[in-house]
Every structure is written in structure tokens, then in C-alpha cells.
């Protein structure tokens, strides 16, 4: 049975006793079902900071427009006994208090940062959760989105194996991250993906046909056949085109967020990356910039345990990715990436903070990459097959969410099989159609390098046409010359 | 190296092109609102105009807030505010990555790299992201509003890391433009064109000329065309091609050569990619000889591209091999700078041996 906490006082009291990086979010009445829910917020709870060693965790102040900076530290220090003020000195960057004790900050915390989760493995809402209520219509839409994503992954993967498309990579195991994050955003929020987030584009309305066209690189592909499969992009869906390079999109999102702030838009930028991506310089550059520029950007890390064959133990030695946020002055949270409701709540809260407080937020979504890295990979070469099986069967985010919606009476196994088979049929059809559409003309190789085609490219195109005429057998017949 | 002021550059042939149509004038163009201006001031004027004419234009980079280490951004933050003109953290990949994002949203993002020697951390963002942004998206997205400015070139005492000319690396990247001005008047018009050009541009500013080059610069808003080379000195015996600060050295060589009866045609390439082959080709068809000079090391320098292209097009017309007078294939040295540099006399010697081939 799903249990909702309706009384705000219960939530506040409850929150006081739990970890406090998340703001106090009241659950809303059932009348507002859609994802544009306004959050009502209890006033931030002031904590007296008598203990200089206290972890300066803060309550998220959801509608505060105060700049969060070292004023907190100043207030703290001002409250100390003035007789001790020879222990405090100014350096560039603010006041620090001195200590004659030589103490190194430990390389690892005593306890790992806790992970926000509201649905248990059986799809039951955990008692005491603070979570944004998701009604039937939204929940079913989210669930069917996950099924659509799974269907896409199954069929496109097969198509690659059959040699019909050259490449594919799946999102198996990360469906909740894809769909639930997308559900919590609005279409005005600019998305800068890595490559394992087609579910976000799917949620926004990119059709199965449009996905298939890109994978086949036909003339209906918006990318004009220039990139490998899964390198989707759609300006009408505010989803920036995927590039294979890792983490390069992260600083782009910061610049875009700054633009949204300056244009006074009620929107944020969102960017996704994996655990591996957080080792790239662009990740660090971006978080630092976002904090300094006060950019409304949400950084979503899909920590799925693997960067191709590299496990996270070979990737970093920090407590995952969430702890890096604080290093850059970025508010952060760790979430169970396989819990769609937790993801949804966290992203919605993050979005509100990002936009109203002009700040970046880092979300580390813990999950597992059930599929291989891509069709060019066989992950049984570097990890045990039974580990993969376990995550696939026992920890599947889609099944977990299905249990929750079924327990609410919003779904059934009839609905399941009917939806899956209809999806499969639609996608098979889209694939067949895409396969038959002709490729873009050779002329499309020469356009869009610049806004206007320069003379050297006109010359090269002319020479190429002559070469094609002379040696047609060297060239694929399905690309019109 | 030239130590005198460079008033002579740009004086004899004056072309001012405004928004698409060009007017060439025979006499010195005197506008009532022209003033004696050095390179950094001319650039500063261009930036003021860029920010004033487009409310969605931004200038950012290390230390730009107080005016910048070369004073190119003086007064901008005071006039346009810190949210449009701001310091960034010390991180070139971040500066350019952030700039790409800003430009992708339709803004004009003018990013400063403090010295061209430090541009390399941003190379991935420039080559893999900025240059391909439009193409890979099928023209759904673009970051054409991005302009990257960086001081480049020898300064007399810069050594390895304050003297580099890295233009060749960028000339190998389809999708970006590379522009290098030779003088204050050129710099202002070219920079405004770069900022307003709908493609990402790398604009290298010859730091040697920041204070040294002084000439009449119109105070109004004007643009000079990209991808159009300019014949700045007409001649008939040999074509010389260069860009940036090197042109003033080449011009001295041309003057000396003239005393010995050699008539030199000097061309400022201005835009290195996409470059104006037609102007160079038509000049070499006239003279039959080509000499290219740049500070960057000779091997793999942009002179090699010009040479190969012109030989392809003009082989039978050429009277002599194409000459390249360039920096040596060493890191840019400190004490040995005078030996490293492509000096006037090295150029003069090469002119003569080409003529006498």
C-alpha cells in the first residue's frame, strides 16, 4: 500500500531526524497530478552552529533568492566568543579560525553519503519518505515510457546484430533515470546528453520513426546521416545533439544555463554523464564555472558502475561522485537511480532550486549498467555473467516501478502485454520504413561545415562528382550522387 | 623586428567594407571621426561596439574584468556590467566550453584566452565541439556566435610560452575560421566581422603590435570582410604573402628590394581559413614567384598549405620554387629569439635568390 505523508508538520519533524540536504517538501493534494507542480515550502530551519566542527549541511531553501556564499561561515564565526578573536584571521577568501591541532581531513568520510530512496525493492513506498506525489496519469506515462525505451533497446540492438544498422547502445538498467528525470523537467529546460539518455528525448516526443531515421542515417535523419547511430539531436525538443566525446557537453550546459539566467527564463539547463565522465577535465571545469557563475544547471551523473570495462574502483577513490559537489561549492544529492519516484522528486526539487536560486545542483544517481557498453562490447569479458543477471532480474528499475503502479491499481499484466506488443509492432514498422528511405545525397556532406559553403568545398564537391562518374563501383549505391 | 610605429601599414590601399558592400578609395580615407589609435585600443573599441549593438553579447576570460593583461577589455565591465563582462576561473577548457554553450543559445560569446600559448587545453572543445557543432546536428544547432580572441606571436622576450603562433593547428579544422589582423584599423573591422560572423572564429592578435602599432582608426562601427585577402602593396616581380605582425617586416624587405630594382607585391591574407586562394593565385599568375613568411615554425606551418595549393594551380607559371621564410623548428627560444625569427634580411635574401633562380 502506498502511504503518503500529508501533514506538513509530520514531514518537518521527520526531516529533522533524518539527513538534511534536501529541502522540506510538503506532499501535495491529489488534485495536482501533472509534473508542473508548485512546491510549497516550509521556512528553512535555522540551525545554530555552535560546534565549529559541525558539518555545514544546509536545508535547501527552495524559494530563497539569497546568494549562498561564505556569509554562512561569517555568521557562524561572528557568533563565536569575541574574546577568541585572535584565533580568527582574514585571508583572501574570507575568515578562518585557527587551531593548534594538526588535523588532516580524512580522505574518506566515516559514513558514505546516504542515498535518497523512497520505493523499496518491492515497489512499496517507504514509510517516512518525503517525496512528491505522482498521480496515476503521470505514473502510467512514466511507466509506459520505460517500456518504450526497453522495446527500442531490444529491437535496435537486434537490428545491429542483423547488420541492418552499424552500431547501437542500450540504456538497460537506467530506464528510471532516463524517464523520471525527463518527467520532472519541462520542455523549456535545455538538455545536454552524453549518449545513454535517449529516454529523455523519447519523453519529450521524439517519435520511434525519428529515432529509426537517425539510426539508419537516411535522408529524414535530422543529422543528415553525418554521425553514427544513437547520436540523436532535436532542436524542437531542446535536446542538443549527442557527440561521442565524453563530458564535453558538461561545460556547454553551464554556458546555456547562464544564458537562460540572463534572459530571465524560468528554465534550467540539464546535463547527463556517467561515472567515467566525471574523471574528465571538462567535468571539473564545468562544476567550478557553474558555481562561480551561479548558473541554473543540473548535473546528473549516471553512476552505473562501469566505464566500458573500467569499474568505478579504477575510476576514482572518492566516495563516488556526490562528494565532489561540495569541493566546488555545488549543492548535491545522491539518489537511488533505480527508484523512479526518488529521481522524480530530486530532479523537481533541484530544478526549483536551480532556477529560483540561480545555482547548480549535482545529482548522483546510483544504478547499474545492465547492458554491454555498446554493440562493440561483450561485458562478460570483464564482469561475471551472474552479476549482470542479478541486477537485471532482482534490481530492475522498471519492475520496481511496475510493482508500485500495480499496487495502486493503475496497471495490470493485460495492460503490460498489450502495450509491449503494440510498441514492438510500431517500432518494427518504423524500422522497416527507415530502412527503405534513401540516404541523404552526397551534397549533404558539404553543407553546414559553415553557415555558407566556402569555395574550397565547392571545388572539392565538383572534383568528387567527376570521380564518382568515373568510378561508380567505388561508391555505395544507396547514397544518391 | 620593427620598432618604429606602423603608420605606413594600411595607408596606401584603403578598403572599408560595411555590411556587405565594399568601397575602395584611391586617396587616404579621412573620416572626421578617425583617431590615432593603437592595436589594443582598436580592439577595445570593437568590443565596446559589439556589446553596445547586441544586448546578448558577452566578453569573458581570465582577468578581463579589470581591463585584461593587455588592456583590451578596459572599461567594458564598468559600462556593461559584470554579468556581461566577467572574469572566469583559470581554465581554458572551461572558458571555451562555457562559451560554446552560451553561443549555442544564440548569444555572441567573445572568449579571451590570455596567451595563444595557453589555448591547448581548449583544443578539444574547439576542434571536436565548436567546429562540428553545426555540421553534426544537421544545422539544428550552431555555436556561430563564439569568437575566441588570443594574443599571439613574438614580443621580444616572451620565450616558449608567451610567443607562440599556433595558427597552423587550427587551420586544419574544418568548421572554424582563423583570422589575423595586421594593424589597428584592420583589427577593429575584422574583429567586428568575426564577432558577427555566424561561425566560430579564432582571432589571433599580434601582441607585439598592441602598443607599437598606431594608425588612424575610424571611431564608428565598421566591418571588414572575412576570407578576402588584400593586396597592400602592388608589384610585378614577386608575390609575398603573410599575416599579422610579420607583414611589417615583409614590407621593410619590399622597400629594400625596391632599391635594388625588385618590384614586390605584398598580400595580407587576413583570414587563414577559409583562405582566399583566388587573390593569391591571380597575383602569382602576374609575378610568377611566391614567398610566404610567418613566425610559426616552417615545418607544417600554414605556409606549406599556401605553397602546395599555389603550386597545384600555377605550376607552369612559376619561375622559381615557392620560398618560405619562417620560424625555425624549435620551441620559441628566449636568448636566441633574434636568430629564430624570420627577419627582414632573411626575407630579402630569399627574395633575391627567388628572383635569381
Q: Could you explain how this protein is built, in words?
A:
The complex is a heterodimer of chains A (481) and B (357). In chain A, the strands form three sheets. Chain A has a five-stranded parallel sheet, sandwiched between helices. Chain A is globular. Chain A is 38% helix and 8% strand. Chain A has helices at 8-17, 71-78, 136-161, 175-184, 198-204, 208-216, 249-262, 281-293, 322-328, 340-357, 385-394, 397-407, 413-436, 455-470; strands spanning 88-91, 94-97, 190-192, 269-274, 297-303, 306-307, 310-311, 331-336, 361-366. Chain A has 481 residues and is α/β, with parallel strands linked by helices. In chain A, strand 6 and strand 7 (310-311) form a beta hairpin. In chain A, helix 3 (136-161) crosses helix 4 and helix 3 packs across helix 13 (413-436). A seven-stranded mixed sheet of chain B has the order 5-4-6-7-9-8-14, with helices on both faces. By secondary structure, chain B is an alpha/beta fold. Chain B is 34% helix and 22% strand. Mean pLDDT of chain B is 93; it is low at 1-27. Chain B folds into two domains: 2-218, Rossmann fold; 230-355, Rossmann fold (3-Layer(aba) Sandwich), CATH 3.40.50.920. The two termini of chain B are 27 Å apart. In chain B, 56% of the residues are buried. Chains A and B meet through helix 7 and helix 8 of A and helix 3, helix 4 and helix 5 of B.
SSE layout and pairings?
The complex is a heterodimer of chains A (481) and B (357).
Chain A: H1 8-17, H2 71-78, E1 88-91, E2 94-97, H3 136-161, H4 175-184, E3 190-192, H5 198-204, H6 208-216, H7 249-262, E4 269-274, H8 281-293, E5 297-303, E6 306-307, E7 310-311, H9 322-328, E8 331-336, H10 340-357, E9 361-366, H11 385-394, H12 397-407, H13 413-436, H14 455-470
Parallel strand pairs in A: 3-4, 4-5, 5-9, 8-9
Antiparallel strand pairs in A: 1-2, 6-7
Chain B: E1 14-18, E2 21-25, E3 34-38, H1 39-53, E4 57-61, H2 76-80, E5 85-87, H3 92-104, E6 108-112, H4 123-129, H5 133-136, E7 146-152, H6 167-171, E8 177-179, H7 184-196, E9 201-206, H8 209-212, E10 214-218, E11 230-233, E12 238-242, H9 246-259, E13 264-268, E14 271-273, H10 277-287, E15 290-297, H11 302-314, E16 323-327, H12 337-340, H13 344-355
Parallel strand pairs in B: 4-5, 4-6, 6-7, 7-9, 8-9, 12-13, 12-15, 15-16
Antiparallel strand pairs in B: 1-2, 3-10, 8-14, 11-13
Amino acid at each position: 500500500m502506498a502511504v503518503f505523508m500529508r501533514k506538513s508538520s509530520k514531514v518537518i519533524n521527520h526531516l529533522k531526524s533524518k539527513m538534511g540536504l534536501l529541502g522540506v517538501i510538503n506532499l501535495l493534494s491529489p488534485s495536482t497530478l501533472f509534473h508542473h507542480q508548485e512546491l510549497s515550502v516550509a521556512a528553512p530551519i535555522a540551525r545554530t552552529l555552535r560546534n565549529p566542527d559541525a558539518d555545514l549541511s544546509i536545508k535547501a531553501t527552495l524559494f530563497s533568492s539569497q546568494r549562498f556564499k561564505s556569509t554562512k561561515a561569517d555568521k557562524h564565526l561572528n557568533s563565536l566568543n569575541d574574546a577568541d578573536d585572535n584565533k580568527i584571521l582574514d585571508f583572501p577568501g574570507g575568515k578562518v579560525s585557527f587551531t593548534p591541532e594538526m588535523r588532516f581531513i580524512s580522505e574518506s568520510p566515516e559514513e558514505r553519503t546516504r542515498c535518497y530512496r523512497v520505493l523499496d525493492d518491492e515497489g512499496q513506498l517507504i514509510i517516512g519518505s518525503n517525496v512528491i506525489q505522482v498521480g496515476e496519469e503521470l505514473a502510467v506515462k512514466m511507466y509506459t515510457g520505460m517500456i518504450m525505451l526497453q522495446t527500442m533497446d531490444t529491437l535496435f540492438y537486434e537490428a545491429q546484430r542483423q547488420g541492418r544498422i552499424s552500431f547501437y547502445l542500450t540504456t538497460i538498467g537506467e530506464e528510471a533515470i532516463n524517464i523520471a528525470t525527463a518527467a520532472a523537467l519541462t520542455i523549456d529546460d535545455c538538455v545536454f546528453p552524453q549518449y545513454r539518455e535517449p529516454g529523455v528525448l523519447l519523453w519529450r516526443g521524439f517519435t520511434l520513426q525519428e529515432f529509426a531515421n537517425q539510426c539508419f542515417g537516411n535522408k529524414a535523419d535530422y543529422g543528415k546521416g553525418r554521425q553514427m547511430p544513437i547520436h540523436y539531436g532535436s532542436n524542437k525538443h531542446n535536446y542538443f545533439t549527442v557527440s561521442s566525446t565524453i563530458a564535453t557537453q558538461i561545460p556547454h550546459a553551464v554556458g546555456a544555463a547562464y544564458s537562460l539566467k540572463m534572459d530571465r527564463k524560468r528554465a534550467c539547463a540539464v546535463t547527463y554523464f556517467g561515472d567515467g565522465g566525471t574523471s574528465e577535465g571538462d567535468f571539473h571545469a564545468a562544476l567550478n564555472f557553474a558555481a562561480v557563475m551561479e548558473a541554473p544547471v543540473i548535473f546528473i551523473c549516471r553512476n552505473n558502475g562501469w566505464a566500458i570495462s573500467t569499474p568505478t574502483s579504477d575510476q576514482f577513490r572518492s566516495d563516488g561522485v556526490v562528494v565532489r559537489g561540495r569541493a566546488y561549492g555545488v549543492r548535491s544529492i545522491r539518489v537511488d537511480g533505480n527508484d523512479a519516484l526518488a529521481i522524480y522528486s530530486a530532479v523537481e526539487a533541484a530544478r526549483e532550486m536551480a532556477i529560483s536560486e540561480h545555482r547548480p545542483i549535482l545529482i548522483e544517481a546510483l544504478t547499474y549498467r545492465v547492458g554491454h557498453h555498446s554493440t562493440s562490447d561483450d561485458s562478460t569479458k570483464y564482469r561475471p555473467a551472474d552479476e549482470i543477471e542479478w541486477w537485471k532480474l532482482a534490481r530492475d528499475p522498471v519492475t520496481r516501478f511496475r510493482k508500485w503502479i500495480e499496487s495502486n491499481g493503475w496497471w495490470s499484466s493485460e495492460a503490460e502485454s498489450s502495450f509491449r506488443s503494440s510498441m514492438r509492432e510500431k517500432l518494427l514498422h518504423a524500422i522497416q520504413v527507415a530502412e527503405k528511405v534513401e540516404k541523404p545525397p552526397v551534397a549533404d556532406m558539404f553543407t553546414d561545415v559553415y553557415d555558407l559553403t566556402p569555395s574550397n568545398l565547392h571545388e572539392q564537391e565538383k572534383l568528387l562528382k567527376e570521380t564518382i562518374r568515373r568510378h561508380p563501383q567505388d561508391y555505395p549505391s544507396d547514397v544518391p550522387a | 623586428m620593427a620598432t618604429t610605429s606602423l603608420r605606413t601599414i594600411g595607408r596606401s590601399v584603403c578598403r572599408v567594407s560595411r555590411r556587405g558592400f565594399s568601397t575602395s578609395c584611391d586617396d587616404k580615407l579621412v573620416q572626421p571621426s578617425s583617431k590615432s589609435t593603437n592595436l589594443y585600443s582598436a580592439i577595445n573599441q570593437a568590443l565596446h561596439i559589439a556589446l553596445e549593438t547586441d544586448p546578448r553579447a558577452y566578453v569573458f576570460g581570465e582577468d578581463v574584468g579589470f581591463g585584461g593583461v593587455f588592456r583590451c577589455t578596459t572599461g567594458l565591465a564598468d559600462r556593461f556590467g559584470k554579468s556581461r563582462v566577467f572574469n572566469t576561473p583559470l581554465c581554458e577548457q572551461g572558458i571555451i566550453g562555457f562559451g560554446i554553450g552560451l553561443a549555442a543559445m544564440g548569444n555572441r560569446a567573445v572568449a579571451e584566452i590570455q596567451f595563444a600559448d595557453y589555448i591547448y587545453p581548449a583544443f578539444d572543445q574547439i576542434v571536436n565541439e565548436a567546429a562540428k557543432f553545426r555540421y553534426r546536428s544537421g544545422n539544428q544547432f550552431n555555436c556561430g556566435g563564439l569568437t575566441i580572441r588570443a594574443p599571439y606571436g613574438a614580443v621580444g622576450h616572451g620565450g616558449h610560452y608567451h610567443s607562440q603562433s599556433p595558427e597552423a593547428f587550427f587551420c586544419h579544422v574544418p568548421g572554424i575560421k582563423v583570422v589575423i589582423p595586421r594593424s589597428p584599423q584592420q583589427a577593429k573591422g575584422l574583429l567586428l566581422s568575426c564577432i558577427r560572423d555566424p561561425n566560430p572564429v579564432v582571432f589571433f592578435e599580434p601582441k607585439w603590435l598592441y602598443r607599437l602599432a598606431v594608425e588612424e582608426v575610424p571611431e564608428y562601427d565598421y566591418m571588414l570582410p572575412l576570407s578576402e585577402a588584400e593586396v597592400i602593396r602592388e608589384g610585378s616581380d614577386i608575390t609575398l604573402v603573410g599575416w599579422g605582425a610579420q607583414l611589417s617586416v615583409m614590407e621593410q624587405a619590399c622597400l629594400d628590394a625596391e632599391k635594388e630594382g625588385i618590384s614586390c607585391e605584398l598580400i595580407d591574407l587576413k583570414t587563414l581559413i577559409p583562405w582566399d586562394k583566388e587573390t593569391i593565385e591571380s597575383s602569382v599568375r602576374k609575378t610568377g614567384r611566391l614567398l610566404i613568411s610567418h613566425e610559426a615554425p616552417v615545418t607544417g606551418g600554414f605556409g606549406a598549405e599556401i605553397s602546395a595549393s599555389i603550386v597545384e594551380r600555377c605550376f607552369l607559371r612559376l619561375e622559381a620554387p615557392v620560398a618560405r621564410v619562417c620560424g625555425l623548428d624549435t620551441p620559441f627560444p628566449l636568448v636566441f629569439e633574434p636568430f629564430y625569427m624570420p627577419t627582414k634580411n632573411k626575407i630579402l635574401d630569399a627574395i633575391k635568390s627567388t628572383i635569381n633562380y
